[in-house]
Amino acid sequence: MQHILVVDDDTQIAALFESFLEASGYRVTVAHDGFAALQADAENAVDAIVTDLSMPGMNGRELIDRLRERRSDLPAIIVSGFPCNDDLDSVNKIVVFMKPVRLAQLVQRLQDLLADTQTAQNLTA
Amino acid sequence: MVLGKNDSEREQAITIESDEQSAGVPASGELEGNAYNPLGNAGINHWQASYVTHASLDERNNIFFAAVQMTRMPMVVCDPNQPDTPIVFANKAFLDLTQYTEEETLGRNCRFLQGEQTDQNTIAEIRTALKENRAVAVDILNYKADGTPFWNALFMGPVSDQNGKLLYWFASQMDITERRLTENSFRQAQKMEAIGQLTAGLAHDFNNLLQIITGNLELAGQYAHAHPTLSQAIANAQQAAERGGKLTQQLLAFARKQRLEPKRINLNSLIVDFSEMLVRTLGESVDLRLDLKPGLPSCTLDPTHMEMALLNVLINARDAMPGGGKVTVATALMNDSERSGVHQLPPGAYVVICIIDEGVGMTPEVARRATEPFFTTKMPGTGLGLAMVHGFVQQSNGRLEIDSHLDKGTAVRMIFPVTLERAGASLHNVPTSKPDAQTILLVEDSDDVRQVTEKYLRSQGYIVLSTHSGEEALQLLDQHKKVDLLFTDIIMPGGMNGLVLADRVKQRIPDIPVLLATGYTEELANQNVNTSLCILNKPYRGHELTERINALLKPDKASF
Hints:
Chain B: It catalyses: ATP + protein L-histidine = ADP + protein N-phospho-L-histidine. Chain A has helices at residues 11-23, 34-43, 60-70, 88-92, 103-124, and strands at residues 3-7, 27-31, 48-51, 76-80, 95-98. By secondary structure, chain A is an alpha/beta fold.
């Protein structure tokens, strides 16, 4: 079962993503800030991350950078209440959704990213 | 109102400067107010009223007369003792400013400078001053001989004989149009900036709330299948939340904070491709004309938002012509620095798209506020249409201009910088391997997957043309006519998806084999995918890919 890290300082949003991802067949770990997220990944490495962008302490981009120091091809999705116009998609390989996002759409993209990562690993192996 | 002293106040004034021939009441800062002061400080020493011993206008033989004709400050003298207080003297600078000749000026009341948009309250201020025999300073909209309006910093003061009998009104003028426009646009920009910050903050918080609402409704919906009334209630709530989401999108668009995906596009092609949709929206009573400049250079814009902006402006044009009429969508190239200066743009090349209607037009007040959010003259109207267009154009480094005349129509111009030419997509990918090698067009938005797939396919002896988007894939196809197989990802967010791309490629090369890749098979069920298409599920392995490609390229020999 693939392991997803969900990070959002809004506990209701984190709980929402958690329950929907679990219902879609993933194992989910929730964190409410970047430091807790890094800790959680250190204890039990994740296969992908779904994170908020603006959070106190460490924002979603920094968090993804830190996690990718551990695994450079980690699939990452930012779900933000505020649009970010930096070209995260092509430059940093981060998928950005704006809130409110349809949960089914979020899961679809996540599944797609996980499959891409696996494919790349297969072809380089 | 900015008025000087009246007769009795002047009598009490201690500081009357005088010599044997004339005397004056210093302004002492009294005429400082909202009106523009050309002195750059509170006028203290200049006279606001004067007293003379020689009333004649005929003494023109001294240095003072020469000075009045040489100064670049326009001046006139009017005679209140003649019917309708005509101008009895106008200096040369006045003629320069107003472009009237001396013959056209002398004998007329100063009101000949006023026009349609001159503020009646300002005129009333001047009348009060004249009636009460006080000096006055106002900014008034006047018109030159050719009808050009200009902002006039007008000062008027009474000239009396030594007994206090009013002889003349002296007036000086100054053209302060440029300053007024700069101040106005600065104020307007500040206001828009403040509204923008407010709406952006609000939209952010609302998006978080909407996420919780829509997400929980989506969850609830999954458990409510057996209960039609509950399902319906959830669906209704979802619709309302979606409307809320659209509203926050519009607010963010106005606040220049929306997520744009700019691409290199040609506005002419965009307009032509979108024109069918426009015609449908405008209805039968509106005659849509296109006047497109051939060879228009590209600019970098988000095409979807550009279409929405165009649609918004055209809907306004339609609504401005309830009886129907003609709407022209025109494009032009602007590349001389003088014209870009007029549009307050830095020198450079610009593409202009102009939407011209023959509708009811707007009053200057409405035109000035047209881009403010929630400002609307339509019932019902959201007041967000032009606000969004304004936000989009600004966020795209462009400029929005609105020219409107009541009962004549409106022209809305969007001006965008031209994108400099660059080499075509991924030309470096053109390989020079063995002459009989087959060419695969690889389209994959994930950089990692594309790079390793390209490398893998090359290692298998194929020529690979690769790109990350459907749009660029079509360009590549046009450049290199010989492509033997299309291998494309299906889901490519933000652009053309793999299924649409496959259709477009088949229009160009009808019998080209197509292999589609996807990590999300359920998506295909929703898209009525033609089952004859070959689909490779991600994650795939190298040998699976080779087998599928070989099978497609040599259908006779292979079996699936």
